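User: Structure please.
Assistant: Input sequence and predicted structure:
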Amino acid sequence: MYREQMASIRRELQQIGVPQAKILSINATHVAMLDNINQIIQLAKNETSDCGDEWHDADEHSSLSLDSAEEATERRTPPFNKEEVEVIPPPQQVVEVQMEPKRTLLFGDYDNILIPKTHEYYDLVDQLAKEQLRLVLISTFCILFEGSILCRYALAGVEDNVWTLFAEDGAMKMYTREETAEGGLPVDPLKAVHQVQGVTALEYMHYFYDDKYKMDWDHTLNGMNVVERISRDTMVLHQKHKTVWPAAPRESLFVSHIRRVDDLKTEGAYDLYIVCNKDVSRTDVPVTSSSGVRVGLTVSMICETVVKNGKALGELSRDDVQCNIIYVSQDVKKSVAIVVVVQNDHNKEQYQQAQDTIECYAVHHKYPFHYVNVESNATLSSTCLQKDFMFQRHCVVAELMSSWPEEWLLFLDADMAVINPNHLIEEYIPSDPDIHIVFYKRIFNHEVMAGSYLIRNSGLSRKFLIHWSLYEFSLPKSFHGSDNGAIHGLQLIIIL
């Protein structure tokens, strides 16, 4: 059903002029979100089906559920040497142990934060969990249970036109809203809410968080591995995603953290958990493909267990248990601007058509566009004294880039035009923090092209541009190719 709704939504977005690349991205994200949530639900039900009516929460489980769940776990656990296996007490001893306050849970518990405070990611995950709870609890439970006590957390919601219903399929509802982060970067969070019968929050979150099950439910993945297992509640994962045409191959590198947060549960709810994922940068995990894109994404899953019919815990069956699910993804885009530098407005008609495509593309995708006329700026003319404008323009960018707020700049020749507006600049921005400048090769002779490049707005980039612009004064008296010849000589100097 939701696939039909997404087709209808795609048509509506096309009619209002949303770029095709963004439409494809929205469609892929939403369909993947819906599919994955449904896959986790099915996985949780399948893995716990052997338990019959017994259910597992954070505080109770029976010997029957222990036996069946251990069987499910064994199906995924590699065999150990018999000599290394710890002796398990008889069943009657296990039952007696369960009556003690200190319990051994099927999936473990996440009552305490286990990541060491000394770890470099501790502050990141702690702040992330708090921020995501604030984001998700903005009107979320008012959507699920109108009039419930959690409406006190509703800072703004559907009634205030902050979250907008995007699509629905039965109990599943999807919302979106426009939002900007600090610095004005668009983040456009997406939210899905769902209700699942017969599954507890701990069960659902266990299968969502545990890396052993990732490839079972996330059908958008081609591969996954654990980069660092920091603690039982925190790890760093590297994932390779299936390519969705026409987007570039995507990867994700993120820290994943799970914790119990009962302080914010709904009145009458049994427990509340959050799993939050946040992209990170690491020099030991480079992008595996030269054309690949590292996804910058913040994802959180919040689940609470609701006990229905007012029964005591010892009398509950799966028919009496419900899990309320809230999923939010937040895509933080890199800040990018387009830069064109011209010497003057003479003969502008010779490249006006190309400039029109650039301006249209910038407006369409909301990229800032810095158009610089050097002769109209006395300061630039007196600062950048190069006689060859091909060198002078790089000096101009070096002088101005510190005043521009964007993280990345796409420098273009004035006669460059946009051929395919469905591609975004972000597809070509490297995720490696040590890369500051991206050049490309000419098709016909594979030389480095000087007329267009992506450059990080950094001190290192500025120094490079200054050295490049000053190369005019080191040119040979023979044929040299202006700045396009100079870039090859400059590369050799840097390398050697």
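Confidence is low (pLDDT under 50) at residues 51-56, 58-105, 138-160, 181-187.
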